[in-house]
């Protein structure tokens, strides 16, 4: 029938058209990535809001490739591990020792220093002997009952006393910069003046545990300021991961919304144009009511009030979007109506609903497909906008929520440009193939402009 | 001394499928106060020829050669600016098949005619001239205050003729001006043109596929086929005694109430990008000979003012 | 039917549309707002109870106390309209809206301290209008120009660039672009202020104030312009191209009119009714769509107000703003019908 050959024809037209081909390719890539994200990283998705999971990642790190521009000042995280040696064992307690050695040649110290030690039973205490290249050393001890992560929070009192003895005063809080500077700076009054010692550092960690405890994992993180393809945010979450996780959501809701609103709009508009008369006027009125509502405020109110899940949100947006397609479908239906075969059908006594299906639907279908593709970017932008305002469906990671987090954490002021740039670029990137495909279908339908 | 002489005029269209020779080395003469008709099927190139004379050809079409002598000057060699200022609409004017929609819908008729006068720096009272023109085409002067959609199709056609004559051109090209009108209005327009020719001394080139129509108005006829002239001569002669096979078939196909059959011409016009070697009519001609398929015949004078392009002569 | 009665019919249709739209909003937000109000009442009643207990320092008659609290709660409920049946409240609300009586806000107040919703809206609406009308006018100006030129040189390189740019720009969320611009031009290179309507404290004197405001408008206008100009230009371009195919354009050339005269007089004038519709939709639509832009740039206009009102569950303000925005749009559409009739004589003549 005309419809089948029609669809094959359009597919061919898309494939022959350069931009249509590129668009199709891009979408295939995105879909593949989405499947990958959903299967390989589903646990990460659940941990997104869990701060502890991201403890060992560098915070506010720039993209890793920035380090090629300035290796001395931009660098990734170095992770050290070593074999624990059991120094002392008795029926009351065991004493383990971990020895780390590393050479530091960068101009600036790590952004943070974190010890990760996992033992089979809780540890009693941890003491760290930090020996700088020039031989001076610091002894740091943790508070009792240390957790797996020993970082600046557990070490702050030790650092404070070290700083007070070196420079004479105690800062109110220990920031990661102060921690690093203390560990890497020259002793004396100039400890915090920015210069650091380069050379061989030795770190000795002594751990007291209850008997028969094993040290399962030990790591020393010298956090860098560059990580991953797109850097990390303030919690250490890699932006590239966030983008990957957001992709299936964006695609899903974009397509869902677009399909529902286009199908709904084309059917309503098509029937409206086909039937004419009172039905047409009534549907026009309904269309106008929805068109007239201020879309964004309305959506924001409804999202806030209903806290919808993904599917419901798609329905909501579709509810406000179908009028656009209804209008186009209606005028298309009206021009089809004027074609002679409709009259011919009437003369032949064919019931109107059959005319609708045999003549109208095949002609409206290419419209529908073209506008489904063209409507996806708009839907995605709307969803990400709502997400940006804090109205994300629960449990989902979306690019809008990443950007929302960026805004609340003052990414712009702090210059964490990667946090802002890349999620936004993704929104554009994901929209482009749909628009290309939509345009090439439109060309096929209308014979080009 | 002819008023207008078209020599070796060619217009080619450059399409992805090849070069379409829409007008192929056409020769044409128009004398003062003469009406010549150009007849042919759809796609024969007659409209393109008219547009070419007015230099309204747009890409992918291009005028590729020839001369157009108007009062012995080659106006084809003028640059666009000069042609627009001195010739177009001033000396040679045109009315179209779509003239009914030739007026901009948002301006009044009078405004648009006055605009033409203004652009061409007409010396004289605009309003008077507009009224004069409307009277000439037998329209009430109140028409000038109306919008195009307020007039009927026939009235709009007349108004357009008025606008075409605004600058007193010497030549009026009429490209299928009556095809979209009903028979009665058609007759009225033809009569109007005849009157104008007499009153204003107009020379007219009348283009149509309707041979019956041309019999009423034209003095001489040119028969065009696939971009070339097949036959030319005085209309009466041609009707009584068509020489070229194509002309004969055309004359035969005129519906006549006395005949009890309708005859058509079998076959289709050749693809203008792929003209057959030899005579362009050869694959449809009932008298085609071997030479017809090999060499293209020239337009030869065979008697009096009759020219035919055919190997039969 | 005559033109005047056509207009009258339009007015009636618009009013019914308005009522329907508002009803929809009301019905959809009703359940949650009810819940919120009840919760508020209960919190306030509990606080009231605590306050009395504190004041009487131990000497309380329990029954008296409970009666007092009950009374207070009842008063609160009636002031929020919680003790009336739904349809009654709905009818009252609709009637009020139509008479522009928006009532008092539940929680918000205007800068001058009034709780009247119309005062609150009136305080912030002008800023939205200033920003977005200016932006839309700039977009219309440049968009029309670009669209016309693009149509004129259809097929050339310029013509390929315009649709591409239109595509990319309309895939940009305005707020993200705004965010990026702030990071780049307000914090990266400090050319423009990062937000707000004026500096704090605002300069005195009309001229200084205006200049300061325009300085603050620069970035949001830039973001708005970049995102929207491409789409508008594309629409104009399509319009002009479709008109260019019509007969009268060819005859205009035939009778000696210059290309630019044809474009700027004949084609533009013929396209003007459709352009006018686009303009009306653009202006009226920009107010509502500017919600996120206002938030990102901390521009205290009606969009920003909507967001705040939603966060605070202040239903009268929400309804009031939606009503005002809808009315503005309908008004714009209606004025557009009148303008179209003036621009295109064919419309006045027949329907």
Describe what this molecule looks like in 3D.
The complex is a heterotrimer of chains A (449), B (313) and C (351). Helix content of chain A is 56%, strand content 14%. In chain A, strand 2 (85-89) and strand 3 (94-104) form a beta hairpin. In chain A, the strands form two sheets. A five-stranded antiparallel beta sheet of chain A has the order 2-3-8-5-6. The two termini of chain A are 27 Å apart. Chain A is elongated. With 449 residues, chain A is an alpha+beta fold. With 313 residues, chain B is α/β, with parallel strands linked by helices. Chain B contains ten helices and twelve strands. Chain B has helices at residues 46-53, 80-87, 109-119, 126-136, 153-164, 183-200, 211-217, 235-240, 245-253, 290-294, and strands at 4-15, 18-30, 35-39, 61-70, 73-74, 92-95, 171-175, 203-208, 220-225, 228-234, 300-303, 306-308. In chain B, the strands form two sheets. Chain B has an eight-stranded mixed beta sheet with strand order 6-7-8-3-9-10-12-11, with helices on both faces. Chain B is globular, with a radius of gyration of 20 Å. Chain C is mostly helical and 351 residues long. The longest helix of chain C has 54 residues, at 3-56. Chain C is elongated. Chain C starts with a helix and ends with a helix. Chains in contact: A-C, B-C. At the A-C interface, helix 7, helix 8, helix 11, helix 12 and helix 13 of A face helix 1, helix 5, helix 6, helix 9 and helix 10 of C.
């Amino acid at each position: 029938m005309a419809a089948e050959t029609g669809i094959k024809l359009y597919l061919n037209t898309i494939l022959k058209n350069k931009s249509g081909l590129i668009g199709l390719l891009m979408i295939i890539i995105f879909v593949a990535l989405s499947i990958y994200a959903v299967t390989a990283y589903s646990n990460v998705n659940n941990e997104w809001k869990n701060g502890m999971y991201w403890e060992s990642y560098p915070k506010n790190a720039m993209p890793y490739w920035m380090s090629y521009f300035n290796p001395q000042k931009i660098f990734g995280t170095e992770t050290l591990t070593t074999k624990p040696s059991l120094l002392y064992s008795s029926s009351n307690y065991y004493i383990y020792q971990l020895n780390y050695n590393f050479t530091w040649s960068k101009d600036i110290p790590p952004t943070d220093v974190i010890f990760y030690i996992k033992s089979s039973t809780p540890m009693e205490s941890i003491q760290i002997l930090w020996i700088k290249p020039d031989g001076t050393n610091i002894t740091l001890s943790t508070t009792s009952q240390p957790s797996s992560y020993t970082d600046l929070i557990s070490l702050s009192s030790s650092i404070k006393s070290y700083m007070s003895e070196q420079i004479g005063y105690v800062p109110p809080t220990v920031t990661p910069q102060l921690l690093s500077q203390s560990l890497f700076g020259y002793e004396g009054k100039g400890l915090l003046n920015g210069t650091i010692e380069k050379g061989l550092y030795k770190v000795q960690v002594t751990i007291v545990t209850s008997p028969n405890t094993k040290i399962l994992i030990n790591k020393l993180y010298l956090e860098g300021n560059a990580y991953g393809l797109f850097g990390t945010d303030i919690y250490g979450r890699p932006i590239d991961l966030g983008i990957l996780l957001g992709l299936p959501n964006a695609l899903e809701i974009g397509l869902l919304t677009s399909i529902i609103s286009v199908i709904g709009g084309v059917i309503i508009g098509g029937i409206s144009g086909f039937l004419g008369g009172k039905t047409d006027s009534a549907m026009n009125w309904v269309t106008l009511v929805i068109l007239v509502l201020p879309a964004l405020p309305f959506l924001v109110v409804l999202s806030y009030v209903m806290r919808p899940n993904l599917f419901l949100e798609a329905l909501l947006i579709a509810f406000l979007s179908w009028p656009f397609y209804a209008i186009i479908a209606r005028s298309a239906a009206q021009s089809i109506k004027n074609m002679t075969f409709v009259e011919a059908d009437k003369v032949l006594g064919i019931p109107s609903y059959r005319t609708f299906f045999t003549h109208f639907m095949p002609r409206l279908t290419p419209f529908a497909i073209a506008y489904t593709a063209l409507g996806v970017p708009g839907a995605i932008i709307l969803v990400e906008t709502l997400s940006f305002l804090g109205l994300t469906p629960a449990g989902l990671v979306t690019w809008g929520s990443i950007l929302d987090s960026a805004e609340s954490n003052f990414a712009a002021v702090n210059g964490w440009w990667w946090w802002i740039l890349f999620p936004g670029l993704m929104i554009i990137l994901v929209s482009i193939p749909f628009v290309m495909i939509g345009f090439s279908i439109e060309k096929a339908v209308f014979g080009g402009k | 001394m002819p008023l207008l002489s078209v020599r070796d005029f060619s217009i080619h269209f450059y399409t992805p499928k090849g070069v379409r020779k829409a007008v192929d080395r056409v020769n044409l003469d128009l004398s003062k106060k003469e009406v010549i008709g150009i007849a042919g099927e759809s796609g024969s190139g007659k409209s393109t020829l008219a547009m070419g004379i007015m230099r309204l050809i747009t890409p992918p079409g291009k005028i590729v050669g020839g001369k157009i002598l108007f009062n012995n000057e080659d106006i084809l060699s003028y640059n666009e600016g000069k042609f627009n200022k001195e010739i177009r609409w001033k000396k040679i004017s045109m009315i179209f098949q779509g003239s009914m929609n030739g007026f901009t819908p948002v301006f009044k008729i009078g405004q648009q005619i006055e605009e033409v006068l203004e652009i061409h720096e007409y010396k004289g009272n605009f309003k008077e001239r507009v009224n004069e023109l409307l009277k000439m085409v037998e329209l009430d002067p109140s028409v000038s205050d109306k919008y195009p959609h307020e007039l009927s199709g026939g009235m709009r056609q007349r108004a357009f003729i008025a606008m075409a004559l605004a600058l007193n051109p010497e030549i009026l090209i009429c490209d299928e001006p009556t095809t979209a009108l009903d028979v009665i209005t058609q007759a009225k327009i033809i009569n109007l043109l005849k009157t104008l020719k007499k009153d204003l001394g107009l020379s007219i080139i009348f283009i149509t596929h309707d041979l019956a129509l041309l019999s009423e108005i034209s003095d001489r006829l040119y028969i065009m086929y696939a971009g070339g002239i097949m036959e030319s001569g005085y209309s009466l002669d041609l009707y009584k005694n068509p020489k070229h096979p194509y002309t004969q078939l055309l004359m035969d196909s005129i519906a006549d109430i006395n005949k009890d059959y309708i005859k058509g011409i079998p076959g289709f016009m050749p693809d203008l990008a792929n003209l057959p070697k030899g005579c362009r009519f050869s694959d449809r001609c009932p008298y085609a000979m071997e030479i017809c398929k090999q060499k293209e015949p020239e337009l030869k004078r065979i008697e009096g003012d009759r020219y035919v392009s055919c190997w039969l002569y | 039917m005559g033109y005047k009665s056509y207009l009258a019919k339009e007015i009636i249709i618009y009013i019914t549309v308005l009522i329907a739209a508002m009803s929809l909003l009301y019905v959809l937000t009703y359940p949650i707002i009810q819940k919120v109000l009840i919760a508020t009442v209960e919190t306030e009643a509990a606080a009231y109870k605590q306050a009395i207990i504190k004041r009487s320092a131990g000497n309380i008659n329990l029954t008296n106390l409970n009666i007092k609290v009950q009374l207070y709660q009842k008063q609160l409920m009636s002031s929020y309209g919680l003790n009336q049946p739904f349809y009654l409240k709905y009818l009252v609300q609709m009637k009020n809206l139509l008479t522009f009586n928006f009532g008092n806000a539940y929680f918000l107040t205007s800068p001058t301290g009034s709780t009247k919703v119309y005062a609150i809206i009136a305080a912030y609406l002008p800023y939205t209008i200033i920003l977005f009308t200016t932006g839309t006018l700039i977009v219309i100006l440049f968009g029309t120009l670009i669209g016309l030129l693009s149509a004129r040189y259809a097929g050339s390189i310029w013509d390929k660039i315009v649709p591409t740019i239109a595509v990319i720009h309309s895939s940009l969320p305005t707020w993200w672009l705004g965010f990026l611009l702030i990071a780049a031009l307000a914090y990266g290179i400090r050319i423009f202020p990062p937000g707000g309507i004026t500096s704090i404290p605002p300069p005195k004197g009309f001229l200084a104030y205006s200049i300061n405001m325009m300085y603050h408008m620069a970035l949001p206008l830039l973001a708005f312009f970049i995102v929207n100009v491409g789409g508008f230009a594309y629409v104009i371009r399509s319009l002009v191209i479709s008109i260019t195919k019509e007969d009268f354009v060819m005859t205009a050339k035939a009778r000696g009119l210059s290309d630019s005269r044809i474009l700027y007089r004949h084609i533009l004038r013929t396209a003007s009714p459709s352009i006018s519709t686009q303009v009306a939709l653009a202006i009226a639509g920009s107010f509502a769509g500017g919600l996120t832009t206002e938030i990102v740039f901390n521009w205290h206009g009606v969009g920003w107000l909507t967001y705040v009102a939603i966060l605070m569950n202040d239903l009268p303000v929400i309804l009031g703003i939606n009503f005002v925005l809808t009315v503005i749009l309908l008004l714009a559409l209606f004025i557009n019908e009148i303008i179209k009739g003036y621009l295109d004589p064919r419309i006045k003549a027949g329907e």
